[in-house]
Amino acid sequence: MERRYGGRGCDDAGVERECGISPSMIHVCIPGRPPRIIEHMYGNGDRDTPAWEQPGRFTRATAGNGAEPKPRGRDGIAPTGWPRGVRPPGVAGWEDTAVAWLFDLCPPGYRSHDVLRKHPLILARMARQHVAAALAAARHGYGTARVELAERVPVQAVEAALRMYEYEGSRAAATERAVRLVEEALGGERWEPRL
């Protein structure tokens, strides 16, 4: 008796042959008998089969019917958290307001790069990274301020610095969410109105 992963079995003479069992199945090969499945390598049956082994996984990607995916949402709808200075996506001139807002979030030197004006998605990515760095700095500053400043400044100043870190951190987190929304909209995402 021999335990094998699927695909190949053996006949009476011990010669390997195709046994028709999925490569993800563990089975027992006994000469003169059909292979007997012991267990599925990834769990029990199709329920636990990983997505890459499930039939039909890539049918949408390879269908080749040329049909564009139906866009979700409508133009002119700004989702919750959308920045105030930016027109809703799909409205005339909204990309210009988005680009101006994104440039305001980045260091001034970014305005001199033409690639960022030509490709607003790259600008959105860089703005998101810049805002994420500011958020990480606020979190780090909040976490270390008490220890690093305890003997250097009065307690009231440390408390004021912590409040400032809280405020700036929450503002940076809200800005990061808004940048993500603008980035998604520049990529073609649209939203439905909420009641």
SSE layout and pairing:
Layout: E1 2-5, E2 8-10, E3 16-18, E4 25-29, E5 36-40, H1 59-62, H2 94-105, H3 114-118, H4 120-149, H5 155-186
Antiparallel strand pairs: 1-4, 2-3, 4-5
Helix pairs in contact: 2-4, 4-5
Shape: extended
Q: How does the helix and strand content classify structurally?
A: mainly alpha
The total of beta strands comes to 5
Largest sheet: number of strands, sense, barrel closure? 3 strands, antiparallel
Secondary-structure element order, N to C: EEEEEHHHHH
What is the number of independent domains?
2
- Mean pLDDT, to the nearest integer, reads 77
Uncertain runs are: 5-9, 11-17, 38-45, 57-64
Instruction: Please indicate the percent range of residues in DSSP E strands (runs of 2 or more).
Output: 5-15%
Supply the number of helical segments. 5
Radius of gyration: 29 Å
Report, as a whole number of angstroms, the end-to-end distance. 66 Å
Helix percentage range: 40-55%
Record the strand order, biggest sheet. Answer: 1-4-5
